[in-house]
Design brief:
Layout (H helix, E strand, L loop, with lengths): L1 E5 L2 E3 L5 E8 L8 E6 L6 E6 L6 E3 L7 E6 L4 E6 L8 E7 L5 E2 L3 E5 L2
Parallel strand pairs: 2-11
Antiparallel strand pairs: 1-3, 3-8, 4-5, 4-9, 5-6, 7-8, 9-10, 9-11
Length: 114
Amino acid sequence: VQLVESGGGSVQPGGSLRLSCVASGFPFSTYAMSWYRQAPGKEREWVARITSLGGSTSYADSVKGRFTISRDNAKNTAYLKINNLKPEDTAVYYCKTGSVREYWGQGTQVTVSS
């Protein structure tokens, strides 16, 4: 199982990013996918989740209305679109799958600063 995140970067407040998580080594379309983030000095926190076929999504209260999780099962890829970025969104963003056994990507850094 491999998860590879990309799309992070340094952006100004109010900007947007789309993070990608390319999966391999497992039947992607049968697994829910989640995004987490970890800010400096803080614990990793759950951000969003999408069911295996994309029919249902859920979000942490702190990101509702600005973050959108989606997936393309034909491309084995999950996405996280972040709008109206704020300095407090600065973190390493990770994708995750699995429940009994969890699989994590290596993360992609998002830095929001003017």
